[in-house]
Amino acid sequence: FPVTICTGSSNVASSAYSIALGSSNTVTHGSHANVNGGSNNTITGAVLQPTWSNINGGFSNTLGDGSQNAIIGGGQCNTLFEGPGAIINGGCKNVLSAPFGTSGTQFAVIGGGLCNGIFNISSNSFIGSGGNNTINNSMGGSILAGSGNQVINTSPQSSVISGQLNLVSCSLGSSILTGDRNTILRDAAFFNVSQSAIAGGACNTITLG
């Protein structure tokens, strides 16, 4: 039967086996879910409960609908939706999010950093760290670090290792190793640029179209 455990200050818990520790943390509709500490952290789900999920600490982190078995390790203002088995280890204002009911960011990982995002159908994707890096609609895409790098527009198994303002768009299995404002793209949603690579430098472009 439902068991609720709260310690600290102003915590609220609801549903079976929910635990809220720390200050002003909330667990609602999150069966078997836990907030282990910190402040103003929330596990909530209006329809698809984030069951067996955890927020381990930090401040103002949110774990919502469709995020079963997901984890936010800590940090500040991180958000995770529609990511079964997904993880945000920490950092600030990082987002893992997909359309409701799609599980589009399952098994995706953001290691940390600032304002990094994995969106839409981008399961099994990875952002290691850095700032303002984005993976969107690119299953298995990866950005290891850097700033302002993007793997977007259906670019599965493509990657940016580091650097800044590098872009991979509409490309299958392509990579930019590092550098500044390098681009691999085609302005259409099919893979005419595939298995291509830019090793480094600045303002280099591989394109079709």
Structure description:
- The protein is built from no helices and 26 strands.
- It has a 12-stranded parallel sheet, with no helix packed on it.
- The radius of gyration is 18 Å and the shape is elongated.
- The mean pLDDT is about 85.
Termini separation comes to 61 Å
SSE pattern? EEEEEEEEEEEEEEEEEEEEEEEEEE
Number of strands: 26
Largest sheet: 12 strands, parallel
Mean pLDDT: 87
Return the structural class.
mainly beta
- Gyration radius, to the nearest Å? 18 Å
List the total number of helices: 0
In terms of DSSP E residues, the strand content is 25-35%
Into which percent range does the helicity of residues fall?
under 10%
Task: Point out poorly predicted stretches.
Answer: none
Q: Which strands sit side by side, in order, in the main sheet?
A: 1-3-5-7-9-11-13-15-17-19-22-25
Index terms:
single chain; 209 residues; mainly beta; twelve-stranded parallel beta sheet; elongated
Compact summary:
This protein is mainly beta and 209 residues long. It has strands at residues 4-6, 12-13, 18-20, 26-28, 34-35, 42-44, 54-55, 62-63, 71-72, 79-80, 87-88, 95-97, 109-110, 117-119, 126-127, 134-136, 142-143, 150-152, 159-160, 167-169, 171-172, 175-176, 183-186, 193-194, 197-198, 205-208. Helix content is 0%, strand content 31%.
Please render the helix and strand layout as text.
Layout: E1 4-6, E2 12-13, E3 18-20, E4 26-28, E5 34-35, E6 42-44, E7 54-55, E8 62-63, E9 71-72, E10 79-80, E11 87-88, E12 95-97, E13 109-110, E14 117-119, E15 126-127, E16 134-136, E17 142-143, E18 150-152, E19 159-160, E20 167-169, E21 171-172, E22 175-176, E23 183-186, E24 193-194, E25 197-198, E26 205-208
Parallel strand pairs: 1-3, 2-4, 3-5, 4-6, 5-7, 6-8, 7-9, 8-10, 9-11, 10-12, 11-13, 12-14, 13-15, 14-16, 15-17, 16-18, 17-19, 18-20, 19-22, 20-23, 21-24, 22-25, 23-26
